[in-house]
Design a protein that fits this description.
Helices cover about 30% and strands about 20% of the residues. It is of the alpha/beta class. A hairpin with a 5-residue loop joins strand 7 and strand 8. The protein is globular and about 50 Å long.
Length: about 220
């Protein structure tokens, strides 16, 4: 296990978890910087990881509360706003913001995380993961107002993951004014990060963690 060599500033910031096994050199690619992606980058950067985040979209007023931005960032590209927040909060970790869509010719890091809304885009990201020898873990985060489905896919899980996929047209129809809640997004993000920490430490991963209403969890 390769522990990180931290500067005095980083040692002070991470002093409450300085002996954690997950403080290692790791690189992540996060596609989507909304309610899930923005908060994932915030937590992963606080563990001093190297993160590349992609999103071509800008912050709107409707994003502020649910996605963790502030009113002064309305109109900014989401990746720029995400980096601003990181600097203001703790300033550790390495974040590279890409104000563009992720494309198949981009070189992914060992971990590729899908934090997007579209099932079609999820499939495109999965294909990048499947065809990349450098990418060893694909994480797909699917979240609604009250439920979530999290998938942690290795190269031995390809068929198993494809069995979970459906088209955007087949997705459950959601009330446009009740598609996401802050508390459920935070639960999904925290659960995802816990699995990521297990991955970094070389511990076993669940293939899927699904939360139904009323905290009814299913693990596979």
């Amino acid at each position: 296990m390769e522990k990180k060599s931290l500067t005095p500033h980083k040692l002070a910031i991470t002093s409450r978890y300085a002996d954690a096994g997950f403080l290692q050199e790791k690189k992540f690619t996060v596609v989507g910087c909304g309610a899930i992606g923005n908060r994932l980058v915030d937590i992963l950067s606080s563990y001093d990881y190297d993160i590349t985040v992609y999103d071509h979209d800008t912050v709107e007023e409707g994003n502020v509360a649910i996605q963790g931005f502030n009113l002064g960032q309305v109109g900014l590209n989401k990746t720029i706003a995400c980096i601003q927040n990181n600097i203001r909060r703790h300033g550790i970790g390495t974040i590279k913001g890409m104000a563009q869509k992720f494309s198949a010719n981009q070189v992914p890091t060992p971990v590729l995380i899908s934090a997007v809304d579209s099932m079609a885009t999820r499939l495109e990201l999965f294909e990048v993961f499947k065809n990349s020898s450098a990418c060893e873990l694909f994480i797909d985060v699917r979240v609604s107002a009250e439920t979530f489905q999290l998938y942690f896919v290795t190269k031995s899980d390809l068929d198993r993951y494809l069995a979970t996929w459906h088209t955007d047209e087949e997705a459950l129809k959601q009330n446009c004014a009740y598609k996401m809640t802050v508390h459920n997004a935070l639960l999904a993000v925290s659960t995802t990060v816990e699995q990521i920490c297990n991955y970094v430490e070389g511990l076993p991963l669940y293939f899927s963690i699904c939360k139904q209403r009323h905290f009814d969890y299913e693990y596979q």
